Amino acid sequence: MKAKVDSRAIVRMATGAALYGVFSWLTNVLPLPSVSLVSVRPAIVIPIFFGLSWGPWVGFFVGGVGNLIGDTLSGIGFYPVWDLGNAVVGGLAGLVPLGRKGLADLGTWLCICALMILGASMRNLNQPLESNFLPAGWIPSEHYLWPIGLGIALTATWFASLIKARARTDVVWGLVSIAGGIGFASLLDMAYSGLSFQATMIGQFLPAVIVNSVNVAVLLPPLIRAYERALERAGR
Amino acid sequence: MKFSGFRYVQRAGVYGQLDERARVLLAIAGILSVLLTWDALCLSISASAALGIVFASKVKWHEIRRFALFAGYVIALLVLLTFMTGEGSLEERKLRAAAQVLRMGALVGFTVVLPFTLHPARYGLTFRRLGCPDRLAFAVELAFRFVPSFGQRLERTIQAQAARGMELAPSGVHLLGRLRRLIPVLIPVLLDAIVAAEDVADAVDMRGFGTAKRTWTGPGRWTAAESMVLLAAVLLILQALALG
Fold it and tell me: Helix-strand-coil percent breakdown of chain B, rounded to 5?
């Protein structure tokens, strides 16, 4: 793991943060239907890619400062909780070089476990939202929440089997870091936004995690492949 | 899509003449005061302070119009959704919605003028003088300096791909298809930037960065006016703590 912050790491931090900011600006105009500011943000692959390639500090900085730059460029103000959440996404992704060789299977299992826990936690979300607006019972009954969780886990496993081993580790860790970072920010944001736990999880955490997972699964493998080819061509 | 970036201009007026540190501290204090409370009175005070900063900054309406409209749209959307999904009686939710408008409006007000009034070449200096370590301050400065050039690269790449017949967001294409269409834009810009970063890193190394204590130079003075602003910033936080 490249944890040392030398001059090369500093330049990479700055480059990644600026790139994440600019690409976030490009896509910040596409907010998702959710109870908070969740936008379709394909640029989330940038902090994950920088974290995977150059370690947790680079990923942490790229996620945090990049999100701040993106929000500044869009003019929607600073949201420290979500800056921190994005930083955690990049930082967690940066932990993968700890032992890349042994992590292929471990990463897959961690992802499956995370999804199972998510499915299990949906049991707690079974109570109808305390709202006068939404019809009671709009959340599916717990009888078929478990199969939904299991279905998501199996789909993720099938999807993981389609990706080549190296990219699979990266994608799986990307997904884990997204769940970790967004989960962290969502829980912190509960106090700040005044949302209930159920509304936070259903209206904020799930839309953000699902969309960002799709972003990572689609964009991260070609990005890593292109970078490796560029390295080979450059002889670095 | 036109990338506008940060448009810094030296401003007249009290706010424009303040030391950058005072402006950053005021913004941080404002954000904290807003985050610390849901009390409508406290939030009204913070929102008024934010509005005062926007007027005092002498930033013209046409400069921030795009930001204000987008922020207004986001605030309206979020307040509506929170109102619909919130807990409590109708009266409580109305009060909560009003507080949320004040809160988010204040957050935007405290921060929207910063990029227009902070010199892009002084981010590092400002953060260093605020006590950040050299490396962190340098990284922040570099990041903000890279933004305009990467924005232009992104614009050029989108135009180049459009000239080859690629539409970034064509109608009738599903989300996955649209994501895949980002690959020909994302990868060239990213790889180009990473390769360029290696050259910048070489240049930084050749100048001996990090081998000795770094010195920073630039204009800036801390006068009575800055101390008054700092006092106001502390009062903002205290009123949020006391009344909230």
Answer: 75, 0, 25
Q: What percent of chain A has pLDDT over 90?
A: 14
Please tell me whether residues B85 and B181 are part of one structural domain.
no
Quick check: B30 and B50 in contact, CB under 8 A? Answer: yes
How confident is the model over A58-106, as pLDDT tens digits?
Answer: 999 999 999 988 888 877 777 788 888 899 999 888 887 655 544 555 5
Full-model pTM: 0.81
- Same domain membership, residue B226 and residue B202: no
Which residues 7-46 on chain B approach chain A with CB closer than 8 angstroms? Answer: 27, 31, 35, 38
Per-residue pLDDT tens for B49-100? Answer: 999 999 998 888 888 888 888 888 878 877 887 777 666 788 888 888 888 8
Provide the token pair at A47: 């902090």
From chain B residues 130-189, the ones with a CB under 8 A of any chain A CB are: 135, 138-147, 150-151, 154, 175-176, 179-180, 182-183, 186-187, 189
| Burial annotation B6-24 (CB, 10 A radius, 16+ → b, else e) | beeeebeeebbebbbbbbb
Distance CA A56, CA B66 (A): 35
Is B236 within the bounds of a domain?
yes
The whole domain housing B143 covers: 132-206
Comparing CB atoms, the residue among A80, A131, A193 nearest residue B31 is A80
Question: Domains of chain A by range and CATH?
Answer: 7-234 (1.10.1760.20)
Place of tokens 């912190």: A188
- In this structure, is residue B45 part of a structural domain? yes
As a whole number of angstroms, the distance between CA B189 and CA A23 comes to: 10
| Cα angle for residues B37, B40, B43 (degrees, 5° grid) | 60
Determine the pLDDT at residue B228.
93
Do A215 and A45 form a contact (C-beta atoms < 8 A)? yes
